[in-house]
Design brief:
388 residues; alpha+beta; globular
Length: 388
């Protein structure tokens, strides 16, 4: 159980930096590899350097991006660095200036919309953020760093490749240059198969459950809904056998709930201060439902006007502001509301329409509260400052 959940909750397991977990996973492959193949239809990459479960979702969601990235330019820098590392063997070292020159030259040659300009501090900060991400993924190592590139455009550093960068991005069956939207990338592996029958339908249902935070009725095809209803018992048994998750089906939602000590999929709740605030707003929404100030609609979905929703956010802020970090206590009201709305949309708690918002039942599964006798700053899950 623990080894499969590790693969579900992490990008990969690298032997060099996490040897014990690597061997735990490898030694238990026989227990869950059939589940991965037959239910998820996913590739499991196992070699002498890492183990990786390729988690391609049934539907792309905004929270499936790199959570530490907040700007398009970071993705541009990331993929150009992967090009730079493509032919470099393990342990080869390179300097920062060589890499930054390659990024600018490549972006210029490819005529990209955004070409990094290292005279701009924001661009340098984005580069540093990408380097941090690649280091955390064990794709590169920072060998030496004399000055901070964010503060000094002439700073120098020495890096080393670990030799696994070519496995960071999945392989595609077709020419991705012909793809127009995210669903094309998601469906690449099944382009020549009927998604509504047989193996592919089963794969998609299990991926909805294990590769997403939640699957709402409107996100599922009628064939996927039929599979969920007919095989609910089998699915629940499989999930209980191979994970610590428990399947819950409601009128509008299919979700796998994990034990309290299990790491949440896609890092929610997480350590950002905005997460704590959203958990409290979720609690305020439920309180309004219990007081019949807002009504549950069809399929457990609440439709609420924008003005009413903004009022709930403002009232929650007013009540709990003393527990917020300084940034959120002093933030302009409009910006505070925008951050909350953006974050709740990102994690599929709400969806926006012209006249208001649909609030979905996942709100009831993720709530927070503050004991009335506490005098500490809000810090339910770590409370780091948001970079939204």
């Amino acid at each position: 159980m623990d080894t499969l959940e590790y693969l579900l909750n992490h990008y990969w397991c690298v032997k060099e930096t996490n040897g014990k977990q690597y061997f735990d996973i490898k030694n238990n492959l026989d227990y869950y590899k059939d589940f991965i193949r037959d239910k998820l239809g996913s590739r499991l990459l196992v070699n002498d350097r890492f183990i990786k479960l390729e988690k391609i979702p049934a539907l792309p969601k905004s929270y499936m991006g790199i959570s530490s990235f907040t700007n398009k330019i970071e993705y541009t820098i990331l993929f150009i660095i992967l090009l730079y590392l493509e032919d470099k063997p393990k342990l080869e070292q390179f300097i920062l200036s060589s890499l930054t020159d390659f990024i600018v030259n490549t972006a210029t040659t490819l005529e990209l919309d955004t070409v990094p300009n290292w005279d701009i501090m924001h661009h340098r900060k984005c580069f540093v953020n990408v380097i941090k991400h690649l280091s955390e993924r064990n794709i590169i190592k920072v060998v030496e760093e004399k000055n901070t590139f964010t503060e000094d455009a002439k700073a120098e550093a020495l890096y080393e490749t670990t030799g696994i960068s070519n496995f960071y991005v999945r392989e595609f069956k077709n020419n991705i240059l012909e793809y127009n939207d995210l669903t094309d990338y998601v469906n690449d592996e099944f382009n020549d198969q009927n998604e509504n029958i047989g193996d592919v339908r089963r794969y998609r249902v299990y991926r909805h459950l294990l590769y997403s935070l939640v699957a709402y009725k409107e996100d599922l095809t009628e064939f996927e809904l039929d599979y969920l209803k007919r095989f609910r018992g089998n699915i629940s048994s499989e999930l209980s056998k191979y994970t610590k998750g428990e399947l819950e089906l409601t009128k509008n939602m299919a979700v796998v709930l994990f034990e309290e000590d299990a790491k949440e999929k896609f890092d929610f709740p997480n350590s950002k201060a905005i997460t704590d605030i959203v958990l409290l707003i979720n609690a305020s929404i439920l309180d309004s439902v219990s007081k019949e100030e807002i009504q549950l609609g069809e399929n457990e979905v609440i439709f609420i006007s924008k003005e009413h929703f903004y009022r709930i956010i403002k009232e929650t802020r007013k009540e709990y502001a003393p527990y917020f970090s300084k940034n959120y206590r002093e933030m302009v009201q409009e910006k505070f509301i925008d951050e909350v709305i953006s974050y709740m949309k990102e994690y599929d708690f709400i969806r926006e329409y012209d006249l208001g918002y649909n609030i979905y039942p996942m709100v009831s599964k993720m709530i927070g509260y503050i004991p009335r006798d506490t005098e500490e700053q809000l810090n339910l899950f770590g409370g780091e400052e948001s970079e939204i």
